[in-house]
Design the sequence.
């Protein structure tokens, strides 16, 4: 059965309610039935007790002592629900009976099998009977039987049963439509979610699902979808940023490389000229390779799913030594003096992958922008359970108005004034992203023509 979600909710609600109502109606019917039988049984017990004192035993016969009085009462009064009384001997033979039985007689049944109260028939009419043994000197002489008609009680029970069944069917019909209405109201937020998500496309990711008023499961669903949309939007934005950055940064060196190669094939050249142009081309290829690698690093840092994959730790002084060793050629070429000082009193472990990206780019910039024969001071200390690494150079410095922009992609302060210093403006962006990945902080202080101080707090 292929039902809609609204109809399934209505059906399940109706089934659950139907079961509960059926149980309640059944209990009501049983309680009324038992109450009715208990009242009749109580009346029969009273009648038997009352007439037990009117029995007279003579030899082997059992008779009523006031039968004439009963007959007189019958002529004077109309009995709405008459009580039938009958006496039987121990063998089941009728000894005497009330005048209202006339030519009829009450049935005799085994008390051990049927109990003291049981249903029987009189003239095809249902009656309720009670049998009480008549004892004399510890010996059962016979039985006193009392009976009352059950026809009116059965009629009431049948009417009650029919009313309950009819009410049950009507209730189910009404309940189904009410359930569909309530289910339709309940899924309105789901319809809103569906309509909103259907409107969202790759070029329209800024739309969000409206949050319900009540903070229930639908609120959590809507909030979860909005968070998912934010993640998707950020992922697509990173993709667009990567494409834009790559095309922007690779277009210039590719154009330059193409122009150089076109010049080379126009006419034969001297060996030295070929060597010069090829060397230039290789330099441009190296620049493009470095740019692509840095863009890939930025893309990896933007992906939060990769942050858990780089948890290897390393001693901070050891990491700084390794970075200085890798840059030893440039340090020697510029005749720089490196001063490393460690004052930390706590564990000096940092996450290797991210710390390496941070320090590699900042130390590389310190070397790149330092003047010849200058000094670079690197200090490592600790404070309030945090490691602090400070890198101070004696380079060209950064303008105060440019400090807030140096962590942006491809931003270089006074790039045109320093064409001889190679770079693409991605190093500090990588350092900043890496710091954010491990909750580190990078602070910058700089003075033009005096140098810069980068403080990294791990």
Sequence:
């Amino acid at each position: 059965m292929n039902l809609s979600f609204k109809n399934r909710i209505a059906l399940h609600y109706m089934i659950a309610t139907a079961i509960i109502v059926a149980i309640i109606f059944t209990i009501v019917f049983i309680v009324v039935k038992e109450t009715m039988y208990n009242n009749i049984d109580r009346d029969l017990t009273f009648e038997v007790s009352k007439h037990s004192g009117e029995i007279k035993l003579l030899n082997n016969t059992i008779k009523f002592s006031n039968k004439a009085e009963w007959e007189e009462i019958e002529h004077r009064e109309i009995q709405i629900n008459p009580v039938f009384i009958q006496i039987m001997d121990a063998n089941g033979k009728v000894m005497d009976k009330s005048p209202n039985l006339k030519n009829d007689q009450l049935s005799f049944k085994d008390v051990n099998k049927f109990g003291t109260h049981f249903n029987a028939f009189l003239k095809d009419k249902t009656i309720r009977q009670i049998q009480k043994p008549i004892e004399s000197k510890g010996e059962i002489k016979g039985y006193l039987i009392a009976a009352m008609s059950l026809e009116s009680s059965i009629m009431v029970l049948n009417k009650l049963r029919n009313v309950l069944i009819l009410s049950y069917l009507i209730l189910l019909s009404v309940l189904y439509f009410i359930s569909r209405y309530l289910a339709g109201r309940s899924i309105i937020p789901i319809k809103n979610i569906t309509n909103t998500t259907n409107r969202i496309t790759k070029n329209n990711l800024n739309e969000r699902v409206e949050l319900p008023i009540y903070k229930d499961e639908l609120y959590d669903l809507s909030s979860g979808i909005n968070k998912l949309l934010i993640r998707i939007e950020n992922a697509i934005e990173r993709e667009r940023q990567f494409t834009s950055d790559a095309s922007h940064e690779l277009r210039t060196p590719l154009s330059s490389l193409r122009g150089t190669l076109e010049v080379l094939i126009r006419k034969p050249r001297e060996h030295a000229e070929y060597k010069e142009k090829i060397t230039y081309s290789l330099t441009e290829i190296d620049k493009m390779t470095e740019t692509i690698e840095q863009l890939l690093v930025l893309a990896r840092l933007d992906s939060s799913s990769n942050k858990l994959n780089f948890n290897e730790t390393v001693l901070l002084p050891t990491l700084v030594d390794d970075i200085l060793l890798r840059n030893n050629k440039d340090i020697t070429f510029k005749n720089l003096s490196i001063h490393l000082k460690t004052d930390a009193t706590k564990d000096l472990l940092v996450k290797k992958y991210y710390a390496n990206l941070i320090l590699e780019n900042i130390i590389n910039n310190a070397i790149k922008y330092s003047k010849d024969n200058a000094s670079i001071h690197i200090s490592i200390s600790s404070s309030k359970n945090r490691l602090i690494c400070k890198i101070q150079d004696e380079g060209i410095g950064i303008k105060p108005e440019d400090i807030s922009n140096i962590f942006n992609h491809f931003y270089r302060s006074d790039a045109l004034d320093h064409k001889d210093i190679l770079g693409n403006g991605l190093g500090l962006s990588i350092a900043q992203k890496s710091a954010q990945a491990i909750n580190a902080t990078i602070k910058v202080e700089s003075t033009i023509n005096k140098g810069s101080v980068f403080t990294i707090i791990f």
Notes: The chain has eleven helices and 14 strands. The chain has three domains: 5-159, 217-302, 310-457. The mean pLDDT is 82. The longest strand covers residues 125-136.
